[in-house]
Amino acid sequence: MAQFREITPSELSDNPFTLIGEDWMAVTAAAKGRVNTMTASWGGVGILWGLPVATVYIRPQRYTREFIDQSVSFSLSVFDAAHRATLSYFGSVSGRDADKIKESGLTVAYDGETPYFSEARLVLFCRKLYRQEMKPESFVDTALVRQWYLERDYHIMYVGAVEKILRRE
Ligand SMILES: Cc1cc2nc3c(=O)[nH]c(=O)nc-3n(C[C@H](O)[C@H](O)[C@H](O)COP(=O)(O)O)c2cc1C
Asked: How far is the CA of 62 from the centre of ligand 1 (A)?
């Protein structure tokens, strides 16, 4: 059983660019008694509205998007390198087509109502504060629209208040 210690946002020593962009994270949420997860490598952490926040960007077609929309919270689980293949799997197969979590062999734990993974090395628990769909007319650099949104599947931005952080000891 993993031993976690709760830390404050100020105690988080990971480089956020490495943490999100290179280590990736499993975005996990529960709805209607089910749990789904997907890999994300776009996002951020910082301060907004005077609160520590984490932001994720989820395309509308993701099955996980439905879970995040229906829940009050989501978690961001970060793993060590041993779980890289699992994160690739979570990021290439949809929960609509497979029971990804069962296939992965990972263990879902709960903090209150919020699911996360016991095997993670770091977990951020986020209470949803804000949801906004990106709009093409809002892009200042319109090359990004051509580069990333040929299908017009503009990301939805979710800002969550980071209410708890668990770090594996
Ligand atoms: C490394 C990596 C990073 C990804 N980052 C994101 C992301 O930030 N936002 C997103 O919408 N999809 C991202 N994806 C794609 C989803 O993880 C992928 O479509 C997944 O299968 C969705 O699963 P779901 O349908 O069960 O939600 C990423 C995939 C990989 C492999």
From this structure: 7
Helices (H), 84-139: 84-90, 100-104
pLDDT tens-digit readout, 101-159: 999 999 999 999 999 999 999 999 999 999 999 999 999 999 999 999 999 999 999 99
Lining residues, ligand 1, CB within 6 Å:
24, 36, 38-42, 57-59, 62-64, 88, 91-96
Spatial distance between the Cα atoms of 28 and 8, rounded to a whole number of angstroms = 21
User: Domain spans of the chain?
Assistant: 4-168
Ligand 1 center to 40 CA (angstroms)? 5
For the domain covering 4-168, report its CATH number.
2.30.110.10
- Radius of gyration (Cα) for the chain, nearest Å? 16
Quote the pLDDT of residue 149: 98
Q: Which amino acid is at 51?
A: L
**Tokens encoding 43:** 């996002």
- Count of residues for the chain? 169
Task: Report the predicted TM-score, pTM, of the whole model to 2 decimal places.
Answer: 0.97
Of 19, 28, 39, 103, the one to substitute when testing ligand 1's pocket (max ligand atoms within 8 A of C-beta) is: 39
